[in-house]
Amino acid sequence: MKVTILCHELSSNAVMRAHRLAQAARTFAEVKLIGSVSRKGAWPALPQEPWIRPVRKRRFPRFYETFLALVEAADGDVLIAVKPFLASFGVALVAAERRQVPVVLDLDDLDVALAPRSDWAAKPLMVDLSRPACPIYVSLLTKATGAASAITVASTVLQRRFGGTLVPHGCVTELFDPAAIDGESARRTLGFTGPTVLFPGTPRSHKGLEPLAQAVARVPGARLAVPCRSNDLAGPEWGRFPLDRIPMTSYCSLPIMLAAADVVAISQSDSEPARYQMPMKVFDAMAMAKPIVASSVSDLPLVLEGCGRLVPPGDVERLAGAIADMLNNADEARVFGERARERCLEHYSMRRIGERLLEVVNQVLRGKGEL
């Protein structure tokens, strides 16, 4: 069986969900991940894989060249389009109509909430129709979810809105093995010298980073480490926090970063985008048996029940208290971490995620004769 995963842009962090689905699909199929890539190259965390096929990113009117190249490359028996974008779902629908194969639409965000209609008038560049990722196209394709043969979602909140099958991000637990990495060596590699709280995700406005930085500043001696690109958290307003901006590295190097941390913080704001999104890095932190402090947003309370500390989003005082408790109680932190790894191995390994995805794939293949 051949499965093609379509990502609208390999140069953005959206590719990491596509990559994770591709890893899950590789447990039962031959897989190819295709998508457009800008001149700056692929997203820094994306590993170099022989089964990833980039196509040059272009704007309209030359986007048709990118579109046609992606249609030609989408030659799987099943097409999985990640996000309702022209270069993913749009391409998949055309390729599927041409070749009579099923399309699975995967939703890991409420993408229309990331570029809300209320901002369009004040930000005309946002709705520049020459951009294939223009939110107008995303809005239209979000309304066209019924054209997919099936839907998969990354959170139960998305499932309540769109239906479909819940397929969590999961983790490559063989790679994220705490027994295989020396924590002290990892700390020396990254230059961590004192109590370190790691936010392992991509800095975004809905990630609750400012309350997290305020909370860490209240914990004596603690510092907050965040993987950043050159312009992330670089403004003068961040200078008042005990912040270490560390280089963003490949997914394959993430276990070292996690091993070096004393506590992992998965902070989210109480916003519409955050309520629909399930942070991917929580599964990686669980696999590495790290003590986790997280916001009680989206599915984090479900996934971390009994194996992590949860605090209301934006509550700086309680967030600081939870972090301090983890840093000051090594035995409790270790127990939380061990429970988290056990749960990850039981429910969120790539084998488990592959089983869920295979059920969806088999379902749409059985219905192929109705296409």
Question: What features would you describe in this structure?
Answer:
The radius of gyration is 20 Å and the shape is globular. The protein folds into two domains: 2-170 and 350-370, 3-Layer(aba) Sandwich (Rossmann fold), CATH 3.40.50; 178-347, Rossmann fold (3-Layer(aba) Sandwich), CATH 3.40.50. With 371 residues, it is of the alpha/beta class. Helix 1 crosses helix 15 and helix 8 crosses helix 13 (316-328). The protein has 15 helices and 13 strands. The protein has a seven-stranded parallel beta sheet, with helices on both faces. The protein has a six-stranded parallel beta sheet with strand order 10-9-8-11-12-13, with helices on both faces.
Notable traits:
371 residues, alpha/beta, Rossmann fold, seven-stranded parallel beta sheet, six-stranded parallel beta sheet, 16% strand, globular
